[in-house]
Write a structure and sequence with these properties.
heterodimer; A: alpha/beta; 6-stranded mixed β-sheet; 9 strands; B: alpha/beta; 3-stranded antiparallel β-sheet
C-alpha cells in the first residue's frame, strides 16, 4: 500500500437477513362487488355475513394482510364463500381488487404496489414470477391444446421461441408430475381429473416461478390421487424451494402441507398462526368448530 | 349504360364509411378496423368484404381484375367481376399488369404488383387469435397489448403434433413489428409478396365486419420458431404441365386425357402469358393454349 493512499475504515459488518424478507406480502386487500355506502366503507362495520345490510354490496374480501416467506407454504382455510378463491384470483391478477397493496420481491425487490402496475407488467409477473393451479382445470388449461403446448404457453409468453427447448422442458416437467410421455401430445380434455390437475401443476412450474398459488388442488380427486398430488407439492417445495399459498377447505390437506395457516370467514382473516398452533389450540369460535368437525 | 344503381352499387354514405375504415387501416398497418358491413347481392362469406372495398375504391377510369384461387374464370371471380362491371361500367382485364385494381380470393398474383395497383383480398377469418381465444373483447385487448402468445402457441401445437407447422394457408404474419395479422387464406408461398411490396394491399372480411391493410413497403414477417423457420410450399421440382414454370405456385390436377396426376400454375394469367412469350420467341402463331 502506498503511504499516500487514504486509510479507509473497514465496511461495518451488516447482517442482511435476506431469508427473513417475505417473497410476497399483501396488506389491506379488499374486493367488493357493488358500489358500497358510507356505512360499509368503515372496515369495522358489522355486516350480514359479508353483505352490507344498507346497500347490499358484497364484501368478498375485507382487509386481508398476509406474508409468504421463501420456501414457505401458507395455508388458507375457510368455508365455501369465505373469500379464499377471490383472494387468490386477486393475487394472480385474475380479478382487480378494490383496495390493497401487494409487494413481490422477485419483481422489483418489493418496491412498488403490484396492483398499480400496467397490464403488461402484471402479465409479466403472472408469466414469470407466479404460477397458479386452479380448482377447476378448465380455468387453468387450454383443454383442446396438447399437454406440451399447455406447458409451453407460459414459456412462449416469457419470450422463448425455440421449440426444442420448450419440448425438452415440457417433457421434464411431465416426468416430474408422473404423466407418461406418450400422453404428452394429447389434449388435457382426454385426461382424468387427477392428470389434468398434474398438468396444471407442470404448467404452473414451467418458468420455475418462485411463488405458486394452489387453489383447492385436491378437491374432487380420489384419495390415492390426492396423496400423490400432495406428495408432489411437498417434493417441489423440498427440491425447488418454491413458496406457496395453498387454499383449501380441507383441514387435512392444510395440516399436511402448510407451515402457517390463515383462517378466513366472511371475507376476513379471523385467525392466523403456525398450523400446529391453529389446529391444536384454536382461538376463534369458528376455528374451534372447524377443527372439532375434522373427522 | 342504363344505371339502376348508384355508381358502384353502394350509396355514397356507405362508401365514405368504408373508405374511412380503410384510411384508418392504412394508418395502423395490420390493425383490424371494424366497419358496418353492408348487405350485398352475394352471400356473406363469399367475398363481400373484398367486394365492398372494391366498390368503395373503384372509379370510372379503373381497370378491374378479379381472381379466385388464381383463376380469372372461376364462378366467384366471374360473378364479382360481372357485378362490379355492370354497376360501374369500368373496363375489366385478366392481365395483371393492365389492372389498376385487383380483387383476389386466396392468391396474390405471381407478377409483382406496382405502386399504382391496388390489391384487395377477401378474408373469411380476420382474427389470427380466434382459435386461441373465442371472445372478441379479449382478442382486442391481446392485440392492444401486443400479446401474441396465442399465435405462437397455435404453431407450437402443430409442431408438437405433426413435427412441422401445418398452416396450408393463412399463416399468421407480424406486420410492421406490431400487429399479428391473418393474411387471408393465401398459401405460405405468397406471404413474402406482402413484405416490402410496392402496392397497397387492403383486406376485407364482410361477415366478420373487419377491414385491415398492409401499406406499401411495410415489413411483413411470417411467424416462426428459431429451430422451425418459416418455409413455403415445395413442389419437389414439379413444373407446370402447360407452361413448364417451376417458380410459381402449383396446384395438382388430373389430366383428363391421360388420367395422370399433373401440376399446373395456380395463377392462370401468369401461365398463359408465359406460354404466349414462349410462342412469340419460337415465332409460332396460334390459338390459346387452353
Amino acid at each position: 500500500m502506498s503511504p499516500t493512499a487514504p486509510t479507509t475504515l473497514p465496511e461495518p459488518v451488516r447482517h442482511v437477513y435476506a431469508d427473513e424478507a417475505p417473497v410476497l406480502s399483501v396488506a389491506g386487500l379488499a374486493k367488493q362487488y357493488g358500489p358500497g355506502c358510507d356505512w360499509c366503507r368503515d372496515p369495522e362495520a358489522p355486516l350480514e355475513r359479508n353483505i352490507c345490510p344498507r346497500c347490499g354490496t358484497v364484501h368478498a374480501v375485507r382487509g386481508v394482510s398476509l406474508e409468504v416467506h421463501p420456501g414457505e407454504i401458507l395455508g388458507i382455510v375457510g368455508e365455501s364463500g369465505s373469500g379464499k378463491s377471490t383472494l387468490m384470483q386477486c393475487l394472480y391478477f385474475d380479478q382487480e381488487p378494490t383496495a390493497g397493496d401487494m409487494r413481490v420481491t422477485a419483481y422489483d425487490g418489493g418496491e412498488a404496489n403490484c396492483f398499480g402496475l400496467s397490464r403488461q407488467q402484471k402479465r409479466f409477473i403472472r408469466d414469470r414470477i407466479f404460477g397458479m393451479v386452479y380448482q377447476n382445470p378448465y380455468l387453468g388449461l387450454r383443454m383442446t391444446f396438447s399437454a406440451l403446448s399447455n406447458i409451453a404457453e407460459k414459456q412462449i409468453a416469457a419470450g422463448c421461441r425455440t421449440v426444442s427447448t420448450m419440448v425438452a422442458r415440457g417433457e421434464e416437467l411431465l416426468g416430474r408430475v408422473n404423466i407418461p410421455l406418450r400422453r404428452a401430445g394429447d389434449a388435457p380434455r382426454d385426461f382424468s381429473g387427477g392428470m389434468q390437475q398434474r398438468v396444471q401443476i407442470a404448467k404452473a412450474l414451467s418458468n420455475e416461478p418462485p411463488v405458486l398459488f394452489l387453489d383447492e388442488v385436491t378437491t374432487g380427486l380420489d384419495l390415492s390421487v390426492q396423496a400423490r398430488v400432495l406428495d408432489l407439492i411437498l417434493q417441489l417445495r423440498r427440491d425447488l424451494g418454491v413458496s406457496m399459498v395453498v387454499v383449501s377447505h380441507d383441514l387435512g390437506v392444510i395440516r399436511l402441507l402448510a407451515d402457517r395457516t390463515v383462517v378466513m370467514l366472511d371475507g376476513r382473516v379471523i385467525e392466523h398462526g403456525l398450523t400446529d398452533q391453529v389446529m391444536q389450540d384454536p382461538q376463534h369460535a369458528y376455528t374451534q368448530e372447524l377443527v372439532y368437525s375434522l373427522l | 349504360m342504363r344505371r339502376n344503381y348508384n355508381f358502384a352499387f353502394l350509396d355514397e354514405g356507405s362508401k365514405r364509411e368504408i373508405r374511412r375504415a380503410i384510411l384508418k387501416g392504412v394508418a395502423i398497418p395490420g390493425y383490424q378496423v371494424p366497419f358496418a358491413s353492408r348487405e350485398m347481392p352475394i352471400g356473406r362469406g363469399w367475398g363481400t368484404g373484398g367486394l365492398q372495398i372494391t366498390l368503395s375504391c373503384i372509379g370510372p377510369d379503373d381497370v378491374l381484375k378479379v381472381i379466385d384461387q388464381g383463376s380469372d374464370a372461376s364462378v366467384n371471380a366471374v360473378s364479382i367481376r360481372g357485378l362490379v362491371q355492370q354497376t360501374t361500367g369500368v373496363d375489366t382485364t385478366t392481365r395483371t399488369e393492365e389492372a389498376t385494381l385487383v380483387q383476389s380470393r386466396h392468391r396474390i398474383p405471381e407478377r409483382r404488383l406496382r405502386r399504382d395497383q391496388l390489391l384487395v383480398l377477401q378474408v373469411p377469418m380476420p382474427e389470427p387469435l380466434r382459435t386461441y381465444e373465442a371472445r372478441e373483447s379479449v382478442t382486442k385487448r391481446l392485440h392492444a397489448e401486443a400479446e401474441y402468445t396465442g399465435a405462437y402457441l397455435e404453431l407450437f401445437e402443430q409442431v408438437v403434433r405433426y413435427g412441422t407447422t401445418t398452416t396450408g394457408a393463412d399463416h399468421p404474419v407480424m406486420v410492421g413489428g406490431r400487429y399479428v395479422m391473418a393474411p387471408s387464406p393465401i398459401p405460405r408461398f405468397d406471404n413474402h409478396k406482402l413484405d416490402d411490396a410496392d402496392n397497397l394491399t387492403l383486406l376485407g372480411a364482410g361477415r366478420e365486419k373487419k377491414i385491415y391493410a398492409v401499406p406499401p413497403h411495410t415489413r411483413v414477417e411470417s411467424l416462426a420458431f428459431e429451430d422451425h423457420p418459416f418455409v413455403t410450399e415445395e413442389f419437389d421440382g414439379a413444373s407446370c404441365c402447360l407452361c413448364g414454370a417451376t417458380d410459381t405456385y402449383l396446384t395438382q390436377t388430373t389430366d383428363p386425357a391421360t388420367g395422370e396426376s399433373v401440376w399446373m400454375c395456380s395463377d392462370t394469367d401468369a401461365c398463359s402469358q408465359r406460354l404466349e412469350r414462349a410462342r412469340l420467341a419460337t415465332g409460332q402463331k396460334g390459338g390459346d393454349a387452353r
